[in-house]
Amino acid sequence: MTVTSTEPKVAVSPNDRPTWTGRFRARAVGTFPPEKLLPDRQPTYVASWIYIFGALTLAAFGVVLLSGAVLAIEGPAWWHNSSVGLYFNSAHLWGTELFFFFMVIHLWGKFFMAAWRGRRRATWITGVLAFAISIATAFTGYLSQQNFDSEWIGTQAKDGINATGAGAFWNVLNFGQMLLWHVLLLPLIVAVVIGVHVLQVRRHGVVPPFATSRAVAAAPAIAGPAAGDTGFGEDKPAVGGDGFDLDAGVAGDTILATSDPGALGDAASNTESATTATQEGGATP
């Protein structure tokens, strides 16, 4: 039985040029394919606690946005005369405290892991920018409390900001200006920068720790994905003579297919023993 298609065939002229929407879609799919944008698996080292603080920072940021949106409905003075307003103001405050706590740990953890390895410089830069802009956002929040604390902060900060020249267009004693910066401009910028940061993480993958990268590079016999196909990260460039490239973040992602946690350590130990024997002039087994 032969099945024929009833769909009309559209003739494509060789002179037809792709539209800007088609080019944009092709570029977006090429840069962020579905398996990278929404991966269904991650390397085993992501189970380490240091990788949790990025997700915790995002969760705290969500609490800050939701509680701030509720406060914006009734106004900044609502929490002074309402127990419900006081509750949402407290949730907003503690959400901000946790946001910075998790972000600082996340930032320092990635600093000591050299998270800019493997063409991840944009990921690192956007993370630092998000932290810096968040400080300004929190500062304008303190100025919007409508109490003596905010007045004291504003009067003390006025002279310092004026000394930098920024006071000509950024008046910390102007409550309306500070409130709009806090509830609209700065949160929007922080959200955009964090969004770009997350997309960069999806594009290049999670940076592997140094120890894992060295162990995997020293154990090529361990079964893993095909070369250049790690399932979530990026294609791996050639490694140097020592089997590990600090700038490229080599082979850290291939630990994904390792089912025996002790295999990496055994392979690394065997390789180290073989190297020592070679240096002493003995034959490598």
Features:
Cytochrome Bc1 Complex, Chain C, disordered C terminus, 285 residues, mainly alpha, 0% strand, single chain, 9 helices, 2 domains
Describe the structure.
It is a single chain. The N and C termini lie far apart (63 Å). With 285 residues, the protein is mainly α. The chain has 2 domains: 41-204, Cytochrome Bc1 Complex, Chain C (Up-down Bundle), CATH 1.20.810; 210-276, no CATH class. The chain has helices at residues 20-31, 34-37, 52-74, 83-112, 121-142, 148-164, 175-204, 210-217, 261-279. Helix 4 (83-112) runs antiparallel to helix 5, helix 5 (121-142) packs antiparallel against helix 7 and helix 8 crosses helix 9 (261-279). It contains 9 helices and no strands. 58% of the residues lie in helices and 0% in strands.
Radius of gyration: 26 Å
Residue stretches low in confidence (pLDDT < 50, at least 5 long) are: 221-285
Number of domains: 2
**CATH topology category name of the largest domain:** Cytochrome Bc1 Complex, Chain C
Q: Please state the overall shape, judged from the principal axes of the Cα atoms.
A: globular
Q: Please identify the structural class as seen in this structure.
A: mainly alpha
For CATH, the homologous superfamily of the largest domain is named as: Cytochrome Bc1 Complex, Chain C
Strand content: under 5%
CATH architecture of the largest domain: Up-down Bundle
Helices, by number, come to 9
Strand segment tally: 0
Mean pLDDT equals 78
Instruction: Give the helices and strands as they follow along the chain.
Output: HHHHHHHHH
**Which CATH first-tier class of the largest domain would you pick?**
Mainly Alpha
Helix content: 55-70%
Distance between the termini: 63 Å
